[in-house]
Amino acid sequence: MDLGGGTWQRLTAVLLVMAVAAGGTGQGQSADGGGEDLLRNHDWTQMPGTTARNGILQVSALDRRIVEQDASGGRPNPPLNLAGPHLRSDGDFTVTARMSGVGDHDGASWLRLYGQVPVIYDEWRQERPSLRVGVTADGHVKVQIWDGASDEPATSREFDCGCSGTVTLTVSSIGDTFRVKADGRRLGTVQDPGVFAEGTVWFGLEADAGDDERREGWRLTQLTARAESGDALRVIKAPQLRQEQSEDSLRARAADVGRPFDVGTALAENPLLTDSRYRALAGSQFSMLTPENAFKPQFLHPRPDVYDFRDADLLVRFARANHMKVHAHTLVWHEALPHWMRQNDDPEEVRRTMLRHITAVAGHFKGEVAEWDVVNEPMSDDDESYTDGDLGLRSEQNPWFEAMGEEYIDEAFKAAHRADPNARLFLNEYGIEEEGERWDALYDLVRRLKERGVPIDGVGFQNHEYAPADRTDPETFRAHVRDLAELGLQARVSEMDVPLGEDEEDGRQTQAEEMAGKLRVCLQEPNCTSFSTWGFTDRYGSTADTKTYPPRPADSLPWDTALRPKPAYERLLETFDEA
Ligand code: 9MR
Asked: Where is each GH10 domain found (predicted)?
């Protein structure tokens, strides 16, 4: 994989702070003296959906969406330049974009300014405050404002412009008003509910596909930012990814176990690049990361012929900078699929789609990831699937099983092995920590796979304890880990979280004991190779209640919403010490 050495240098460059005086003419100013030239002086190579040539960015329709769990609907998930420049402003400022190739085809062309970057919770992208300005297919200029209180824009205004071809759009944030201009001509104002109250501005570029499915999008030929009336505006480069290490950490303990053992967490790229305290803990506490979403098909393979690995690569770079392993997740699952992947009923086509996806994705990350969840959650949730000789495999909503039956699992592992022969290959599942037909059926499945010579190395036990009934005896887990050892397979705790009920007495103690119990067993069983939680802080935890705005965080993970360690963290440390 080409991670671009030069880019890497730029990415890890020390925080570069540039004072941009209003109307100044120093180095870094654009040709017309309109402020700091964000396009030419800064890194846009990591902006998904774009290609850079001669200082111009081609923005194409990426069409990323987050579908709901039942595969319906889908919230747009347009990209932002996480590893590029962002602004710090404590006052009024102006951003100017020159856009070419707009207004002459079906889709709209957008510049998005995020006051806070969105957070992806379970099957949902929560919009936080942002402003989007763009040119529609019929040449209007449209302004939309998200105020952080809903998924939909709180304000939407359209101005007659007659714009097409090349347009220079200007947005000024002045007091509590946004002023919008096109080609220097005043279009109007929109009330600002406080989009940039945090003093930060992150950039996104979007091209709508439109009905004609054209993807060529538009071109950004200039982007500048300047302060208004003497207020300070600084352009900030992407943060350094390497984090300071500490002796007093989970990963330092894991390094002392006396055999290869990793302690991991799921990580999300948005907070990783924008929240320095999240980044510091992620890099200093863990020796392994699992991409929470970035490696899923709907994130990196949004259209049949479009792969965009840039957000995923950020996580790989972070891992590399901090000597962490990547446990990649996931190649074949029935969720998080872009709609196009479900649209074909021809079994041969479905098989080809699956194999092509695995070959491209595992091939891209070859040598960069230590392990893959090749197949995720293949077991059925329907009791009927476990009766009358049925083998308990999920068929509902699962296009892979529908097309190929059980064989999809064999094929997936073989293709992953061909693409990256050195990666350890896992099957990952929930609800298998306890006795019952689900575990029995999974055990039978992996035994069959081994008998057929399928290159599977291990099983991930997710250990989501969403309800008190999910709190399982570590000794049962131990028995299952040992069953796998007999088959020559490894095991790992892959996604643990322990959400507490509203008024659970001594809840945090229970949470700590649950996590410590599984870690202890994992440390004691030689074929158990890692212990990972599904995220590490409640600030971005996937079990938050996102039906409300802002979301109500759950109490599930070792660090709280203020990133303070909870008893679970202390108990995990102690458990390493006791081992
Ligand atoms: O935490 C993830 C959430 O942000 C996603 O919307 C969701 C669907 O892609 O997946 C969540 O992660 C799941 C993981 O991929 C598989 N096991 C269950 C995890 C928690 O729901």
From this structure: 244-575
How open is the CA angle 101-104-105, to the nearest 5 degrees? 105
Amino acid symbol at 311: D
Residues near 344 by beta carbon (within 8 Å), at least 6 away in sequence: 350, 353
- In the chain, residues under CATH classification 2.60.120.560 are 5-236
Q: Please give the number of the atom of ligand 1 that sits closest to the Cα of 66.
A: 6
Distance in Å, CA 63 to ligand 1 centroid: 20
Q: What band does 70 get if pLDDT is binned at 50, 70 and 90? A: confident
d(CA 283, CA 293): 18
* Atom 11 of ligand 1, nearest CA residue: 122
The CATH code of the domain at 250-578 is 3.20.20.80
Q: Which residue in 377, 351, 352, 368 sits closest to 309, CA to CA?
A: 368
Cβ neighbours of residue 95 closer than 8 Å, sequence gap 6 or more: 111, 113, 170, 171, 172, 201, 223, 224, 225
The neighbour count for residue 1, using CB atoms within 10 Å, is 13
Range of lowest pLDDT (101-110, 173-182, 350-359, 474-483): 101-110
Residues carrying an active site annotation: 377, 495
Give the integer Cα–Cα distance in Å for 474 and 484.
15
> Residues 54-70: what's their mean pLDDT?
93
Ligand 1 pocket, mutate which of 330, 495, 498 (most atoms under 8 A from CB): 495
What are the start and end residues of each CATH 3.20.20.80 domain in the chain?
A: 250-578
**Which ligand 1 atom is at minimum distance from the Cα of 430?**
17
Q: Which CATH superfamily is domain 5-236 in?
A: Exo-inulinase; domain 1 (2.60.120.560)
Six-digit token pair at 338?
């872009």
Sign of the dihedral through C-alpha 12, 15, 20, 26: negative
**Pocket of ligand 1, beta carbon within 6 A:** 120-123, 292-293, 296, 335-336, 376, 462, 495, 534, 542
Burial of 542 (C-beta count, 10 Å sphere; 0-12/13-18/19+):
buried
Q: Which of 363, 331, 266, 294 is nearest to 64 (CA)?
A: 294
Residue whose structure tokens are 């998080």 = 336
Pocket test for ligand 1, best of 125, 432, 542, 546 (most atoms within 8 A of CB): 542
Helix (H, G, I), strand (E, B) or coil at 486: helix
The percent helix, strand, coil of the chain (3-state, each to 5) is 25, 30, 45
Extended strands (E) in 60-210: 65-66, 75-76, 86-89, 93-102, 109-114, 119-121, 124-126, 130-135, 141-146, 155-159, 165-174, 177-182, 185-191, 200-207
**Ligand 1 center–CA 121 separation, angstroms:** 8
Q: pLDDT tens for residues 34-54?
A: 799 999 999 999 999 999 999
What pTM value is reported for the model?
Answer: 0.94
